[in-house]
Backbone:
């Protein structure tokens, strides 16, 4: 499996799980694909109210709603966290960037980078691809002074592959999807597989462009250097990654990186199966009908409405025709009676 396939497998699995989760919640709430969003929101409130009033059969729906809400919050926080880490990690290097020298610009043109290469005079040895919408490659002047021309060409070819695949943007998307679908046990395995395989694909592209030896010697010189820039957790993709799976495949190109996660895959299949058949087997909870909610302002309040006041109950009933069109028909039928 290539890095591109691993990325799309991650996105497809996470998206399918979230869609299945939403559809399961809608089935429990007696909804459908074409039901207005206001009706679904009303049913969600009714489900939580049913659990509060002592209806135990509302627990599965409330649990799934909690998982969906927690996943949405986790996805937003993961995207914000990666953005903040990327900005903090790259800010020292970005403050001292400049255009490359003519000799280095010629090497960059040979591997296809053109004017997408910048040099940073910040202390340290680093090279990385950055930028979500307009990716570029940055290398340090200290790295250029450490490596030979063929080794520089190999690292630039590696970073050029990341740039072509838009790996910084894919890293942010993968982090967000994996955090949002955290309830699917297979997501950490797919996320790790994407991170490893994107580096292996970039190594193979560099080897195809300049050969095996320049890339290996460049990594040997830089991986042990004390001035390496830490990019862990950021959206920037660095060519000086030292993961064990990458080095194993680099030393033996015929070796396939381990996938693992068999128990996680089994647990994921069980969860998906439970979401598919659970609503059909579990008894539906008794929810408050729109007519019952409309009469709450006239009748004694239920335990869930105690302490709210008659004004708040009447105000909530005024919004029912907007959120649930069915309540209009219920109210009209009552007015026509004796």
Residues:
């Amino acid at each position: 499996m290539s890095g591109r396939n691993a990325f799309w497998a991650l996105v497809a699995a996470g998206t399918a799980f979230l869609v299945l989760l939403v559809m399961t919640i809608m089935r429990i709430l007696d909804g459908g694909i074409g039901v207005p969003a206001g009706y679904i929101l009303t049913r969600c409130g009714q489900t939580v109210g049913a659990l509060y009033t002592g209806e135990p059969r509302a627990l599965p729906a409330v649990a799934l709603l909690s998982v969906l809400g927690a996943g949405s919050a986790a996805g937003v926080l993961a995207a914000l966290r990666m953005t903040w880490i990327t900005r903090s990690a790259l800010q020292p290097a970005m403050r001292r960037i400049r255009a490359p020298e003519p000799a280095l610009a010629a090497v960059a043109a040979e591997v296809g980078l053109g004017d997408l290469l910048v040099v940073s005079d910040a202390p340290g040895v680093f090279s990385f691809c950055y930028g979500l919408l307009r990716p570029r490659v940055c290398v340090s002047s200290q790295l250029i002074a450490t490596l030979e021309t063929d080794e520089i060409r190999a690292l630039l070819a590696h970073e050029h592959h990341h740039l072509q695949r838009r790996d910084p943007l894919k890293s942010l998307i993968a982090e967000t999807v994996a955090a949002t679908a955290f309830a699917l046990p297979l997501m950490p395995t797919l996320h790790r597989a994407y991170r490893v395989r994107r580096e292996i694909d970039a190594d193979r592209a560099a080897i195809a462009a300049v050969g095996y030896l320049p890339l290996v010697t460049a990594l040997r010189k830089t991986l042990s250097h004390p001035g390496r820039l830490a990019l862990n957790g950021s959206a920037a993709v660095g060519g000086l990654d030292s993961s064990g799976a990458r080095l194993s495949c680099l030393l033996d190109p015929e070796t396939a990186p381990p996938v693992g996660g068999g128990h996680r895959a089994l647990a994921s299949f069980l969860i998906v199966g439970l979401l598919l058949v659970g609503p059909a087997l579990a008894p539906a909870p008794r929810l408050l009908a729109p007519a019952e909610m409309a009469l709450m302002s006239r009748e004694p309040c239920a335990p869930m409405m105690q302490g709210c006041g008659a004004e708040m109950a009447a105000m909530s009933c005024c919004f029912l025709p907007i959120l649930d069109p069915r309540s209009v028909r219920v109210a009209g039928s009552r007015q026509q009676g004796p």
